[in-house]
Amino acid sequence: MVVSISESPLYPISNPKSIAFFGASNNFSSMGTSIFRSIISNGFTGKLYPIHPQEKTVLNLTAYPQVSDIPEPADMAFIVLPTKIVAQTLAACGEKGIRNAVIVSAGFNEVGGEGVERQAELLEIANRYGIRFTGPNCIGVVNSHARLNATFLPFEGKPGFIGMASQSGSFITQMFSYLNQRFGKSFSTGFSLGNEADIDLVDCIEYLGACPNTKVIALYIESIRRGQKFIETARNVSKHKPIVAFYVGGSETGKRACLSHTGSLAGPDRLYDGVFRQSGIIRAQSIEEMFDFCYALGSSPLPKGNRVIIQTHSGGPGAAAADACGRSGLELPALSPETLEKIAPYVPHTASVNNPVDLTFTKNPLDFFHRIPEILLEEKASDGMLIYFLASERMVRQALTGMGVPEDAVLDQAAQIVGAQCQSVASLMETFKKPILGFSFMTRDNHFVAGLQDRGIPVLPSPERAARAFGAMVRYTKLREKLLQSEKESAGHFSAE
Amino acid sequence: MVVSISESPLYPISNPKSIAFFGASNNFSSMGTSIFRSIISNGFTGKLYPIHPQEKTVLNLTAYPQVSDIPEPADMAFIVLPTKIVAQTLAACGEKGIRNAVIVSAGFNEVGGEGVERQAELLEIANRYGIRFTGPNCIGVVNSHARLNATFLPFEGKPGFIGMASQSGSFITQMFSYLNQRFGKSFSTGFSLGNEADIDLVDCIEYLGACPNTKVIALYIESIRRGQKFIETARNVSKHKPIVAFYVGGSETGKRACLSHTGSLAGPDRLYDGVFRQSGIIRAQSIEEMFDFCYALGSSPLPKGNRVIIQTHSGGPGAAAADACGRSGLELPALSPETLEKIAPYVPHTASVNNPVDLTFTKNPLDFFHRIPEILLEEKASDGMLIYFLASERMVRQALTGMGVPEDAVLDQAAQIVGAQCQSVASLMETFKKPILGFSFMTRDNHFVAGLQDRGIPVLPSPERAARAFGAMVRYTKLREKLLQSEKESAGHFSAE
Fold it and tell me: Which one of A116, A469, B153, B302 has the minimum C-beta count within 10 Å?
């Protein structure tokens, strides 16, 4: 594989220079208009050709009565029309020379009966004209690096590194605010697949595998249609880029729900577990966990093994993290005599220098962010760290006030201190090339959480979630090694022939 | 059991009319001062007697050189002093006639060696004077209904109904902002237990079982000291008030962490699972899950069985909820012909009226909050509902603008509409006495989420978490029935003798 990204049919869909848009009007409450507004308000810089039979303008842009009237074959047609006129519209696009489309309209395979015939007709038209398309019954596409948000919800957050392909559009659009509030970053690219009449998961994995803005791939899966091809493609990609999947068809209730959602036939958990293992894919148990894993995998160097040191100043969160580490297949090595000696000057007598290293408090709070984790990263018996962060800027401000810093200088100085502390942790991860996963019950309202995250340290919202994410990184490291090893062996095999 | 609440040693500790406070000074960065400031700034209305050898005032309150100088034996002594002078201070409190204390100071059993002797000495002094105390090595106490926050972090949120006893103080204090951001409500009462030299989990369960502000009890457990008494007490309480426990000593790594945190000896998961089952306690797998369960159990009527209808307008979240229901032991009954007939006029042709009921969109958005869930609650084959909420006030405002409502009236009208919708859902739960659990990836920044929560509808942050919380409610219903049944049988047994 290793397609050139521009050869993929998903390239013009996620990087269009021009869009022919069907279904936008000046009626604010229609789905088509909502999506069209999102495209405009997200600052799309390409050309927009709204097609409307009556209106002269749509949201102040020149409208065209028919697609044949637009000045060029657009890179992509975006179709949000009543079910019955989708097929003829796609044909008209084909006549115009348009070769890529997103079909949002529903009422096809997922409703059964006539819908199945309608979907077959779409595919027949697409084949006739060489059109490649996502949908029908999908929700759109987003490419944050190209300022493209062709979905009905407003994009939030900075461009990120998670590339997602989803058999539910909700898990693209409805995660905009979630990802922004949780991590401050969003998708690199997101594809809603809908019924997968044409473009499917496999195409997305190929595209996202080659996408330079995507460091890790997230998949929401209700059913895999091209099993063998899926495994081959994912296997190739996961050698160099992690893939995390959330699969919901595995339980009896999940299976029935998938059938009515996208008309797909799901298989039992065991089967999918096998597929994922062969493909080098890490399975997540919930949508939150999928994003946790992606966020950690995309932010952090990979651990060389499963040995973790936990640093905390609170016993409970430390114990919870330790327990969760055990349940996630991680080991907590004891500190070596050298480490114990080096760390002694920095810990109070109430501290515990077992692993978890529970400082209870630090003589000098700054040590918590620099010298202590530095010593723990130097420990050879460990492959990475989990650090519990409670610190709040409020406490820094209080300390400054207590030290007699004048009120008008406190805010600035506190912000500088917080920034420097966060930078210190980030530099340690850079220097030691070992993963540091933070955890905190605080959100990004807390300046330390935001400061760490924005400098590349993943901070997850609970000890269990951090431990599970570290476990996922360990699993990926092992799967990847196995894939690379088997590639090497088969290469050796061929050269010996 | 069934103590009168005022007989419990925890009554004066959580409802003191006066506090003798040791360890506060005018040095802002000390732990004692932080706690003392919290008490003042949270609006405590009782008397505060700071004891300080030198200072004339502490934070502008008259200070006393020794406890013997204060004008009355305070309801409670609060001790945040260096380890070595804790024992003599406790004795001085005894001499003064003080009979209840909270000892925050650390350096006792949890550090081993001399610490063990020091803890024995504390207990000996307490016994001599009849003092009952929490700690040492605890973090304080909070009673939101009495405006008492004796911890070093600021209290956040409204008084709530979760009463917590925790072997880690962090899971009291560090959850203030979590609970507020997540649910808008905090603890009713929270006890940090520390080393449990005297007052322990059992005392807390007794107290919280009788506390009128507590609807559900949360326990963070590293180890249970009085096993038989724990089971008896919890069994009695859980007949009328749910208890949820998060236990972390079950894995090898968790066990070691607990040992160094509070010097407690944890047991294997299997053992604790048995204890919890016998006690009628619901076990949670993480701190987040513990609060999810508590929040749902305290907000909602109990389900009569495990049959759930899922209502959604997004297929993915619906399918994820369905899958999670299967994994949480819940059934998704098919809708009866009567229900299908009643609901038909309200659903578009793209909808799926299997269970999940996936509306895709609603002809009239208001139906989603009233007529549709009403019909689904009337369904006899179901014991409750999970509803996915995406709605945003922004969308309501857009719709109003689209309808030509003048800009200056839009905000008010939108707030009214949101409030009415949320009230409608809350009234349905009231009328049908079936649980309605909401789920949404949005937080309380979203007015629908806050509106529903503030009207008593629990809204959890993901489909999996909502399904698991519903599963916990079903488990509690069953455990409770079993306990009540066995009580009846043994009563019958006695009367037959």
Answer: A116
